[in-house]
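Exercise 7 asks you to align residues with tokens for two separate proteins.
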Amino acid sequence: MIIVENLRKRFGGKEVLKGISFTVKDGEIYGLLGPNGSGKSTTMRILSGIITDFEGKVIVGGVEVAKDPLQVKRIVGYVPETPALYESLTPAEFFSFVGGVRGIPKDILEERVRKLVEAFEIKKYMNQLIGTLSFGTKQKISLISSLLHDPKVLILDEAMNGLDPKSARIFRELLYEFKEEGKSIVFSTHVLALAELICDRVGIIYQGRIIAEGTVEELKEISKEERLEDVFLKLTQAKEEIAQVVSALKEAL
């Protein structure tokens, strides 16, 4: 379970999180949605134990982040928006490194790597330098490395960016399996149709605040919109801006 209470975060003089609160139950996929600069990635990094200087209370898997961020990192599988990999290593070397840091027994690590590498079809890249690989392949490596220690919590920041349709579908099905196993999952994406398909509940963050939260159907009913995309654009005040931009483009073209 994840509990966030009155979370605030400043970078210099700018407050990027302004007292947000939400919970994610065991066996739940929670979508954290918002425009660029809204505070999504900062929230994800706090949930993952990477950022520890904040105000408020954040508990992940029963562990308070501010008090024991190392333990949080042990139980969380985190996929950042941009893959954070050692590009001078091969995928085989990188997975071995991650397994060593995580203390995963060699036989268990080898079996998990084998299954995930086959599932995401990167076997032919295992001995190539990561720095030479495509963004999509790097994203697969990032996903695989986040799952090797069988985390009880998953923090996924645009985790499907760059994935081919087959790999995206495989990962989506894995998320459903993880949900059934009781894992808590926070999922961020700009592809709102995907969030509508995957998430049990969503929170919409805008200018550092959670401005709406509930199931997709609840948010549709509140906003009187038929699609999550339209709900999002309406609540983040982007719908009128889009109409104005399109109108101006029509005149210019």
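Second protein for Exercise 7:
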Amino acid sequence: MQLSKRLGAVAGEVMADSCVADIGCDHAYVAIYLAQNSIVKHMIAMDVRKGPLEKAKTNIDEYGLSDQIEVRLSDGAKELKAGEVDTIVIAGMGGALITKILEESIQVLDQVTSLVLQPQTEVPAVRRFLHKNHFMIEKEIMLIEDEKYYTVLSAKPGEQNRFNLVEYEFGKYLLEKKDAVLWEFLKNQIDKYEDILDKLMKNSKNIIRQEEIKETCRLLRLGLLYYEEDSKGEDNCDRNH
């Protein structure tokens, strides 16, 4: 099984010899990859939709992995029992849905030792949820595929010092290691929002929206300060506003 760059990054964060539930498995590509490469002891591939789950079953059978991957119809993690797995993978959903699924399954969450999450949106909310629910963010990967940016978070149970606003927004470890993909993202976002702000200043009297865009630019600029040696003089978002 050849995975996309995004799913490959997700699979790469699963620890060897884990028992894993892939929630929202879609066609079970991650589950198949992990089982095929003998990375996990056991997989449960779960999805709320019957159509994708039937396709997942077909794919699993084609790879001869039905004895290693259990397929389960489930709304989030509701059909998962506490202690059944030590690792939960959720990839390709919005951040709000990911946190909702985990919040509705706190008893299951209390028994896992690893979370691998790839939210499509609202990544800061996922970071905050993890801290609120006593998980440490161990690692973050940011990548670009098909001109879209993705973040993969790995977390384990434990307490961690809270991040500041910018670190929740963009990822403490990505900022501290001066991640190249995050830098590109920050620069692109500054260009985007600077252009929006210019147009608003010229064509709109919506002061509230202008202030919102200025605040977004401010956060982006603060993110770039972590790259100060590399980006000195580059950032001029809302400089003239």
